[in-house]
């Protein structure tokens, strides 16, 4: 009370002014940061959506341009200019079939002549329903339709079906048809220009499927002109859009000025059933934006149609704000077509709003609690923070020696000081690890950096290059270094992409493992995918080296799952994060056994138990490698049942597996002649099969010298 009589002390005034200024400043800065960050986030969102749209258009162009180029080339060759006939093969048939074989996005290719004749080749492989509707054989890969421009009352249409190699599987009887290519949209569309042109989305007359046609006119011999066309179905565009989606809540679609959907991630929504005004029959037509019954898409389309739209516009639907972008597709690829993207604005502003609210609450509480000593504490905290900033600057410059000398009575500052000190020490220690990628993994996993380890179930991989020693003796040191570095780089990418940890490089070999330092529930699955990725990378490199006349490097891979000790070994001056134990040795043995069976990837039954049916494998033997106490089942990992085409098992290989399936059971039952018979069949199919040759030789040996009564089919290896 005496303060009011004598006047308020200076430090109270100073404290009050300080609190008022700081409080106001904190509030103003928080609001300003929120507003500025929100504006920045919206600008970033606008730029992101515009960038995404442009990338989609670029990818769209990359998908279309090869077809445009192909169309331009085909229209210049002589075979397509010859009219089709019912009594002989069209000279362009094999060429058109090869186009379908090498371009999976293409549904059909065909030629329409100004005489009314028509020649059509379609890929029936992925079109089971269409094949069934044509009564084509199940093994038919291609369908060839010929339509001759004769009297419509005379049969003039014929279907021929081919297998994947182009051999005929059957010919349908001649049929009557009123089909005339000259009245189809793709034909009329191509007459407007001399270059390739994409049609609007429409329904194909043959398959009744929606799609787009890229067509181009050509001038034939004997004053006979025509149009060459290439069909791409809506399912291709749906798959294309599914790949472009960049967030869970984003929406992406193509539409035209009539409000019709020209492409949607769900192919079924791109079409709808309507009634033909001529005959009242149901027909397929383009779906409409309104049929999606999506208020967000409807609002975007409404604003666009009535001129209320501006790219990057923020609009509100049912109380939630969204941001959208609409970009026109070049007319060359799709006439009167737009790409539309919408994303909830909360995906961009949500974290900013939450951070701003938390900042205000924290600032108010901190100011209220710190009022009595705010001046003293603020000075000390400011000094401590400046010292910590200076320390982090030194860490950023990799000056990692010496302790962190920051003194403060505030526990948070102490904790921050201790954390920075621990980080500095850990980085200093981890800096001794090679390769650096392992150090980053160890830091992210929170693994301690002291000596020692723990026992953990791991999946281990060993790789090796066949004949590397002899190859290295014929190469210069520079060429060898470059070649092995390029090889290891691509295999390393495959391992890292599947969450693997590389233990070490041993010359041309790699030792890697999964489930350490970071735990991984499905580590065997990741390891198998990495093995297939390494094999694919090796094949691609070999193809490149083969084309330039260099020697190839065939990779052998072995996988095994089991308990091992994993951790830091070495000294305080030099540590190595590695795995040790019988499981590691066994994995190395498995890799070496590839040379016996002529395989590339061998896995044990311990790995097989951990993976799902997505992988294609076959059992090759039951073995007892040197140094192993219990027999191990060996399985060859061949590929995936579904997934990237490059990792799938070819049909020919699947037929080989069907033949091989009973061999191991018959072999263990000592039915030697049956095993030999199956293996001989395999050699007829795959003459270079090392596995079939091996089992024939074994059976002949056992027939000459039968195994003991206790023999259970286990092959014992006495050498590494």
Automatic annotation (TrEMBL):
Name of a matching Pfam family: Guanylate_cyc
Top-level lineage group: Bacteria
CDD domains attached to this UniProt entry: CHD
Entries under InterPro entries matching the protein: A/G_cyclase, Adenylyl/Guanylyl_Cyclase_3/4, HAMP_dom, Nucleotide_cyclase, Sensor-like_sf
SMART domains in UniProt: CYCc (SM00044)
Protein name, entry field: Adenylate cyclase
Domain Guanylate cyclase residue range list: 459-591
Record key words, sorted: Membrane, Transmembrane, Transmembrane helix
UniProt cross-references to PROSITE patterns, sorted A to Z: GUANYLATE_CYCLASE_2 (PS50125), HAMP (PS50885)
Segments crossing the lipid bilayer: 12-34, 360-379
Domain HAMP: 379-432
